[in-house]
Inverse folding.
């Protein structure tokens, strides 16, 4: 009797798993790879109050900290570094605007060539989630997405800027390496 019940449970589990493997396409999944921080983090509070005070690494929704690395199912990795504040030049678009600049590094660990012009960066800031304009400023080296292709086994870095008023600290930066990729969300406070 016990063997029959065990066998029945195994058959039900196998059929449930089999029905999950339909032919519908699945998007890339994003996982977190922690990078070594230069300063130790404080222990998280029991109940975060607002996005302005909540560390992204405390998030249970898959949001990454600004210093984390997103790893995609196809072995593509994307990470941010060198976050700094600045003001765009008078020839920039938009001009004379406070922003946060950052370097994005994309590593192509897949076996296919990536078209980097398909890379999308989107930002928002503040506790109410105001859309942040991307800053294009050649004088500051903020030229947007590379227009080249990235061969398998290679990495590329590019500098970006997103509007961040001086009075705001919280920034959310979304990175999507291609149209088929899931968007990785990096978030946290910028001093």
């Amino acid at each position: 009797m016990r063997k029959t019940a065990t066998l029945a449970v195994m058959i039900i589990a196998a059929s449930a798993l089999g029905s999950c493997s339909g032919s519908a396409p699945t998007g890339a999944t994003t996982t977190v790879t922690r990078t070594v921080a230069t300063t130790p983090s404080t222990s998280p509070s029991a109940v975060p109050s607002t996005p302005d005070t909540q560390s992204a690494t405390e998030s249970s929704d898959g949001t990454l900290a600004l210093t984390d690395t997103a790893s995609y199912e196809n072995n593509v990795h994307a990470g941010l570094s060198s976050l700094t504040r600045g003001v765009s030049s008078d020839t920039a678009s938009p001009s004379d605007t406070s922003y946060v600049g950052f370097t994005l590094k994309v590593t192509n660990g897949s076996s296919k060539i990536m078209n980097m012009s398909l890379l999308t960066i989107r930002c928002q800031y503040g506790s109410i989630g105001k859309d942040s304009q991307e800053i294009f400023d050649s004088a500051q080296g903020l030229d947007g997405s590379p227009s080249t292709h990235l061969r398998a086994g290679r990495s590329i870095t590019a500098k970006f800027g997103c509007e961040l008023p001086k009075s705001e600290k919280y920034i959310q930066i979304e990175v999507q390496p291609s149209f088929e990729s899931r968007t990785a969300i990096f978030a946290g406070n910028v001093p």
Summary: DSSP finds one helix and twelve strands in the chain. The mean pLDDT is 76. The radius of gyration is 21 Å.
